[in-house]
């Protein structure tokens, strides 16, 4: 019944998500305990590894960059009521766009190339998301299922292209030719020595800009208004003269474009070439980031940083405590999705009871 | 392709289709009851891991099978709690469970066995046995028919035969029993059932339990029947293929069997065609065949070959209040 | 008009002497801060038809849901046939012989009639036997009560009236002695309603007890033996039907004299503003719901479309408002032929001066998750006054809405409150304010007072008349005949997608309109 006493805004927006995330970590900690390791020690090592020194922090920000883009991609689609599980495949295909432009104009200065590679990556990612968007809008095929299927198709397609088409003669590994140093997106360490040898690059400030951009788009533009109307109530959006089909296709394309920027970071910023499965699950982390961040750019930023720290800290941890592998991070990620997404409402009733008791005046019916 | 080649491809089709059939029918029970389950992949993986671990420790395949089913049932219970009791988003819950299985299996495997997440190689006694049907060895030299019987009909894991048996059982349960009637009703209009005095919650949990058991057997098949131990990510997308097959079969048992066999056949073909040039086509990239089930499903979903209409209430939590 | 010949009450003798079929004592039920039922006492005699009337939100449905085990009461006792019982779910109710026909049918669309009837009462684990047993039982029930329906037809292929029969059959098949019907005639044509009442009379004469929930006083007067009135969660009266009148019941329901007539002057119609020519419209499933309809609305008049729900009104409104592409025909708005209906047609029509208050505001007219001010620009979000280019001018939008809050007395006066947290009446005011304040030339209004409290109804009716007096062309669609009659300057009657007659509200009598709404044309009726 809707007549329950609503939670105070700060409880709803801050306390509840924080409790949910804490629960995920608590259970993660118990798993670590179960295999006979000390979770507090693990946290300490991870925190140092992620934030304690320049290289580590740089790596954290490098991961964070990917997760911001992927998280924004999932969030944007989510505001339109679309669950885009395909950021992984969209980013992967975007890698093709980035490498094609990079190799085509290989040797050109990055200042010229970065915008070109960005556009190419975004366009390829957008294209890969547009098809499921089109199928949803025009043929009624559910975007959840089609984006999953498109991830697999992307894997097959890219694996074929990389191993059969892009692989230069005489190279044994399945990878494309290399992008020349002058063309690659420059590393932040070239400007800020603090970052040591970490791969955080100019894509990171771009990710920060994307956070602002998406915030503005959703809450300060007429397009965003239409997207939210569509997400909350498609019938009302139709009534309001909004073309739902068009909006679904545009939103999916934008979402895929954002996912595509992961490829800019990975291919043009870090690897300098196209390798198999460079996404390494970043698209899926985006799902966790979006839910934990409640599809709001501030939340996405914090969640992406948390996961960036987990991924980087997890690497360090694997050295110091070999029993705790990187897979523990995937577990934490799963728990975060579970507790902030699927079970996000679990703690609401008890919290409502607590706060209803504390504010009895609000609870009394207006006679 | 010779006759022997054909039989060999069909033989591996049966082997590759077995886990798909389990997972696909598992999904059928869940989705017919109105709970979308994209966590089939994770359940396959979790069950495969659980089965391999227990089989390795106890040396008993049956204990392993039991453990695999247990793991899968637990995951079903979490999915049920999230989507039935908490009315959470079923897709998100499924996604989370897939990652949970992927993360935990490798993590626990590494800390228990230290082999990069794999479990120790199982001795043959700790694997589900295969069955040689009567007279299979005697008739194998009879041209065509004998070989067909020996290679294709006989000699599969017990679980493969069970998989094929579950199809008519499912068809019977779904369309000829009280439970099946209620199951179909709860996936179409749960309120109709609730007002008839039947518990929607209980029925959906029952469906999820069947889902858990079936996909659990499928997972155990992967690690302790088809292979001799668990390897990282050994489900390799089969849960999603099964989901695609379920859609392709329009949530019906016999077409589900046919689709799983088709997808299994494509899988088998892919191994066969590696490096083989087909007349007129040339060499078919294996990736193209890998992608074929997904492409076919998308074509179906797009409505170019018939229409796949899901159970009406699938994906929507049941809210009693008006 | 007496639609049902009230059969001489052949109630079992001494019914009053035995224990009542249902007795409720001091029932209370709250949902959070909303006290839906307060100290309800009710006694329903065996073998009678007992009506329960009350406005929307008076607590009727909650009370019946408690009786049927959908909710449990916070306090109070339920007695069935004199014995105190506890009903915690529907199966408890069913085993006590209580059956319910819900307002929205609880049927599985792609099941057959037979499958729906046995669902939940199959008897054996295998279907074969239960189905054949049910088949013969169904034939017996159909014979005894005049409830013929083919057992192997799919529900989705049945008419609404037939689906309701299946619901009644479901209850009877489960051996219900006490039958609760929740607003059963809302979706029926008068002919179907007549048939239903005959069935109910038969059931009563067979000794069944019937509780009829409705807000239509005419039905109460026609069929019930006793009537209870609910108001704001309380049971305010229970009287024998023969000793009361519709006026007395209306007063009990509302608590004061109802203004049944809206004060308005003679209309001064001007030019044609909205013309509909041979309009044919299909629903989502492709079924033709509006069949070649033509009419026009002039400036300064209210044209009301009367009809039973589901006779094509929704599709007609959506087609005129540009939300649904017609199969054939033309809509001429302000002299412009509108041909580009479809995806974003609603936006184009707004620009041409047409405003639309939709039938179902929660489903269509509002985004309930939006803050109130956000809904106050819904449909007009692209206008330059809410920001140039891509940007949305939040400040301008909020300021404008704050002005309307005062003017339309929207409570609470908080533009940033989530729309879902406003009452039905205030939500409707948000919609009306939005659509009326654009100064449109044409206003089309669907079910303007559905689910709206009585105070707001008057306000809304007066606003509509004010628009008319300001020279606007108004098309009003409502299933409430009283509303149509008191507001309209001309009445068109729609039946099965066709305009079957036109009437002058001043001279038309209810019987005549009722026959038209039932699809019986004037000439035939005269015979």
From TrEMBL, chain A:
The chain crosses the membrane at residues 14-36, 56-78, 90-106, 112-131, 143-162, 194-218, 247-268, 274-291, 298-314, 329-347. Its main location: membrane. Pfam families: BPD_transp_2. It is found in: Cell membrane. GO terms for molecular function: transmembrane transporter activity. InterPro entries: ABC_transp_permease. The keyword Iron does not apply. Signal peptide: none annotated. GO terms for cellular component: plasma membrane. It is a multi-pass membrane protein. Keywords: Cell membrane, Membrane, Transmembrane, Transmembrane helix. This is ABC transporter permease.
TrEMBL record, chain B:
Keywords: Cell membrane, Membrane, Transmembrane, Transmembrane helix. The keyword Cell membrane applies. The keyword Transmembrane helix applies. It is a multi-pass membrane protein. One of its GO terms (molecular function) is transmembrane transporter activity. CDD domains: TM_PBP1_transp_TpRbsC_like. The chain crosses the membrane at residues 6-28, 91-113, 158-175, 207-224, 291-310. It holds the Pfam family BPD_transp_2. Its main location: membrane. GO terms for cellular component: plasma membrane. It is found in: Cell membrane. PANTHER family: GUANOSINE ABC TRANSPORTER PERMEASE PROTEIN NUPQ, SUGAR ABC TRANSPORTER INTEGRAL MEMBRANE PROTEIN-RELATED. This is ABC transporter permease. The lineage of its organism: Bacteria, Pseudomonadati, Pseudomonadota, Alphaproteobacteria, Hyphomicrobiales.
Automatic annotation (TrEMBL), chain C:
Residues 22-257, 274-521 form the ABC transporter domain. Keywords: ATP-binding, Cell membrane, Membrane, Nucleotide-binding, Repeat, Sugar transport, Translocase, Transport. PROSITE patterns: ABC_TRANSPORTER_1, ABC_TRANSPORTER_2. It is found in: Cell membrane. One of its GO terms (cellular component) is plasma membrane. Its main location: membrane. The keyword Electron transport does not apply. GO terms for molecular function: ATP binding; ATP hydrolysis activity. It is a peripheral membrane protein. Pfam families: ABC_tran (PF00005). It comes from the Bacteria. Belongs to the ABC transporter superfamily. This is ABC transporter ATP-binding protein. The lineage of its organism: Bacteria, Pseudomonadati, Pseudomonadota, Alphaproteobacteria, Hyphomicrobiales.
